[in-house]
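Posting this for the archive.
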Amino acid sequence: MTDCGHTTPGQSPASGGARERRAFRVSGIVQGVGFRPFVYRLAVQYGLGGWVLNDSAGVGIEAEGTAAALDAFADALRREAPLAASVTAVTFTDVVPQGEEDFRILESPQGAAARTLVSPDLAVCADCRREILSAADRRHGYAFTNCTNCGPRYSIIRGVPYDRPLTSMAPFQMCPACQREYDDPADRRFHAQPNACAVCGPSYRLIVDGEEAAGDALVAARQVVADGGILAVKGIGGYHLACDARSEAAVTRLRRRKRREAKALAVMAGSMETVRGLCTVSAEEERWLTSPAAPIVLLRRRVDALDAAAEEVAPGNAYLGVLLPYAPVHLLLLDSADLWVMTSANLSGEPIIYEDDIAVHGLAGIVDAILVHNREIVHRVDDSVLRMTAGGRQIVRRSRGFAPTPLALPFDGGTSVLAGGAELKNTFCLTRGWEAFLSEHIGDLMEHAVLCSYEETIAHYEHFFEVRPALLAADLHPAYLSTQYMRTRAAREGLPLVSVQHHHAHIAAVLAEHDVRARVLGVALDGTGYGADGASWGGEFLAADMADYERLA
């Protein structure tokens, strides 16, 4: 197969010549992100005939036209791909021309989900934002507006392929207007599985003292925060606790009720202008804040901030964890100058609450009102956290917006491996060939609810990506619950189990991330790690490569 090159500058796609036909293969996150309608529009633009479909390896295309048009088309597949897509490879082979002049979107063949990728949840795009805020638009003020470029994905998926009946949008039948958008290849909502509007889609209601409040739920919810109260908001991947971040009294009350004494709280700013007034922001930090992943970004606080967050938000901390509105409901709750605490709805150490009955009963003594919607969250997903360092971007917590996108391995792993992760701030990893599926943030496994979430998420990943591990890897520490899970499973399923020394795992992960094959001096200082000698070490110096190590100190 041939790697697609770039169009020569000045080359005209419309130039004449004999017609050729090429079979393209596009790999990566290219399903559920509007890639087929994007291909359709490109083909029409360049006057190509042929077809596009989703299949077991990603997206398959056959396109027919002049060589110049096909070259331009190939270049645009990468260069102009939808923001939500992640194209890892575009290849093609020459095939026999069929004389096709029209371009079609074909149905996926059976088994198309076998090696596809599941898109992470994506922040509301600029087009949907305009519709939500435009009084003339039919989706004005609608808190579940989305399209193929944005909206919920992983958090609503029950199974693959990614089709509406296999998501928590299944109970909501599209109205005629939404159905027309869904069926139109030229529309950005073509095959947007969560497509909905106020006529046919999910809706919010506000619960106060166990009863549904009358009137507009979003207006009333906003008033709760304006009055100094604490609000629970059901969003994309779970519930958040929100209050006025500039109110010392409100933040102190939230801390006391959540039992979070001193750890910094994240804040959501209504606009980038508000963020700049609070913190110093580099171009790269702003790029991440406004990206489809929309993570919390750790920013240095301005000493001259005029309308700063309350000291109780991050006491004694020179940094502030900041994020922007990433779901339509946030756009409708916060004005541009607002600053709200937006922290996971959970008691300290427990996972984020995502089920309605647990939220209504479990948060009753913590919040003054609960803003709840009737679209089920299938998978809880915490906000991601990152910061910029001298070495570039550093992900502190990889979750919403990133997971379950796989990391590319610098080698073909061959045997599929399930690596169980550690006890604290757990994530696990499932490999498939050149891909490593690193889970979303799970949490501290000592909590029973977190351990249950850990086991459930492992099962989901194996189902989604159709991988049954042939090898299990566990931390050397015998008391870790992740280690005990792996040992139990190895015995039950007759699978080999490899024990990995904790600090060597840290160093090997960095080597794999940067594709360093050489032996290095690795320094791991993470607090505690079970050594091969049976002792717990706060840090170690190892001479190591990816496969082996020698302890130096």
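The chain has three domains: 2-105, 214-373, 391-551. The chain has 13 helices and 29 strands.
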